[in-house]
Amino acid sequence: MGHILIVEDNENLRLSLQEFLGKEGFSVETASDLKTAQLKFEKNTDLVLLDWMLPDGQGLDFLKGIRNQGIQVPIIFLTARAELVDKVLGLELGASDYITKPFESREMLARVRARLREARVEANLPASEIVIGSLCIDKVKHRSPNFSITKLRASF
To answer: Rounded to two decimals, what is the model's pTM?
Structure first.
């Protein structure tokens, strides 16, 4: 279903998340600090749940490091930092989502699944195309590659 890395220093929360997501069918790896997170993060990680404040630094540094490498794995902040400036900063620097503690586990699960769906869709599409059903639009050329005026006239 997906490989998730949980980076959380609160042991009770980390273990609860690991158990909950494991029961939902995910493969889960955990880390309690940045150093361990960097060692455990792999190219096959499908999503990261990331705390902001960690014993050896900030989750924001982990996020920036991943994004600076060009890796676009979904990263969801799961943090007690609830100020608007923190939410905006996290999202602007590349977080896929931002959930403040305390949170409802079912909502967190829904957000995890949504980000994984988006990542799967993006991985299968050329970056220059938008596909909705049978409609395909080239964002660079501003047209549909399948469109022709002849086909359009023939349909009337």
So the answer is: 0.78
